[in-house]
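Q&A FORM
Asked by: J.P.
Topic: structure of Class II histone deacetylase

PROVIDED:
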Amino acid sequence: MFHENTTCSRRTALVASELYYWHDTQNWCGSMVPSLTVQPAEHFENPETKRRLQNLVQATGLWEHLSHLRPKRAADEVIRMVHPQSHIDHLASVCERGGGDAGELTPAGPASLEIARLAVGGVIVAMDAVMTGAAENAYVLCRPPGHHALPDLAMGFCLLANAALGIRHVQKTYGLTRIAVVDWDVHHGNGTEAVFLDDPGVLTISLHQDNLFPLDSGGIGVKGAGNSNINVPLPPGSGSGAYREAFEQIVIPALDAFAPELIVLPCGYDASAVDPLGVCMLSSEDFRWMTRQVMTLADKHCQGRIVVTHEGGYSPVYVPYCGLAVLEELSGASDTLPDPYADFIANYGGQALSNDQAAAIKRAKDAHFSS
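REPLIED BY: S.T.
REPLY: Here is the structure written out as tokens.
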């Protein structure tokens, strides 16, 4: 047991449930519907990445050093803080007929709406724990993901806007007026952006591969009310150098200026070097480093309050190491597990900041800080 004798300097809560892994994305082939030219296979968003992350946390012994929260089912009145009843009814009808495509590239099974309610409820339970001081920070290991879900459309494997609903709950219940979102999933956090675009009390920051998904989304010109939306589209092939430069030039100054009362991280691991749905090159150490920067700012501005919602990441062999690194950092674990892929990824050509990456980051910085 690697973490058997570890100590943790933070009170970190983990929300996990076997039921999250029962969300059925059916026999699509990656993200394509089977046909006479597309052989049925497994959907990219399947339980394996999340289940293997949970398994690794348990196998290393870190599991015993976290506090564990049970998700609660989110009722319609909670979901209606973001989604109209027509959206809930649509999802219910898809599930009642045995499943199918619930929106744009978003398959669902018979129990998917009920499991999505548990994903939302898990985020709300985590928010309550952090806001009441029962935990300093929390990680929600949920399925289905949420950051692409629009108020009236399931999209990109996401049925309900998990993080956005948690934020609306915090605004309503605790009266917070400054909440920051930092989304480093390789795909643009378009759903979260759409929910809060007219809300200057929520700063939304998305670092993503330029024009990957959704197409024509995530440009630097979308600034939101009070200049509270920041998109950082990074060139394909961006690695450690580009992401750290983006943090130092944009994310850290923006969070410092905003002085949030809570930070929410829609946390996808599909910017990793071995993910099938992106062509960026991050390692687990990069996710650990980004988490550390956010924690420093959270300590400065909001008593360390951070809630992490698990989003994308489609490499079953590597997501567990990235997720473990984030959980180790959140909990302040005295031991860290060596990443068996670390040296391999670190030696990828192009990990250093390139001229085109620096120029893209400067354009995004100028778009926000010069306006």
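FOLLOW-UP: Residues 112-132 form the longest helix (21 residues).
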